[in-house]
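Researcher: I'd like a candidate sequence for this fold, 209 residues long. If you have to choose between options at a position, lean toward the conservative one.
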């Protein structure tokens, strides 16, 4: 865990290496941390350029009030932003990613991704996260979640995810973001989301189901 940290003007080059652990190839990872600021950077990553998690050998807790801004995301083998290990049951909230430029990658299928991996039995909630002033090269899924059913684990949903002033070349459809949790809410708000030159104001047109 880390708290009240500031990182300015960093370039991270974590290229993809065949057979290497994917967790070691993230660009910048916030793990069970709060009040972290990353500003004016370039994240070249074999896996995700930016990962926000809530688990690890020494870090189990909420991830909140973190800011990444004025940064280039350049993935080689994964999405642009990943909310990882959601099944550990901690909250991902009040995080801001502002003024982000995403370089196109043919293997960066989704812009925002959340996943649960199994083996843990806790509630999970992601809420009040904002992504503003993004430009995204290429055609991608905007939001992709992988929440398969697990005994005693409850995915509690995605609430108040705000997409403000997002420009993307094109959108493809995501799979069901609730997956095997039909009662989980999906609350997404768009303010000036532009895909392929057209304004999008609802989840269906954004390819989110």
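Model: Candidate sequence:
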């Amino acid at each position: 865990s880390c708290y009240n940290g500031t990182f300015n003007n960093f370039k991270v080059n974590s290229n993809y290496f065949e057979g290497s652990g994917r967790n070691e190839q993230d660009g910048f990872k916030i793990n069970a941390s709060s009040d972290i600021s990353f500003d004016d950077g370039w994240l070249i990553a074999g896996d995700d350029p930016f990962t926000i998690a809530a688990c690890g050998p020494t870090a189990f807790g909420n991830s909140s009030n973190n800011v990444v801004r004025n940064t280039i995301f350049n993935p080689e083998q994964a999405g642009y932003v990943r909310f990882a290990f959601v099944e550990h049951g901690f909250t991902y909230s009040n995080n801001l990613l502002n003024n982000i430029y995403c370089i196109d990658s043919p293997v960066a299928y989704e812009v925002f991704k959340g996943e649960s991996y199994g083996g843990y039995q806790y509630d999970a909630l992601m809420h009040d996260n904002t992504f503003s002033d993004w430009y995204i090269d290429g055609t991608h899924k905007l939001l992709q979640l992988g929440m398969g059913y697990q005994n005693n684990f409850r995915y509690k949903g995605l609430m108040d995810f705000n997409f403000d002033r997002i420009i993307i070349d094109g959108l493809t459809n995501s799979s069901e973001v609730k997956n095997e949790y039909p009662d989980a809410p999906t609350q997404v708000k768009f303010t000036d989301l532009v895909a392929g030159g057209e304004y999008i104001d609802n989840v269906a047109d954004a390819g989110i189901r």
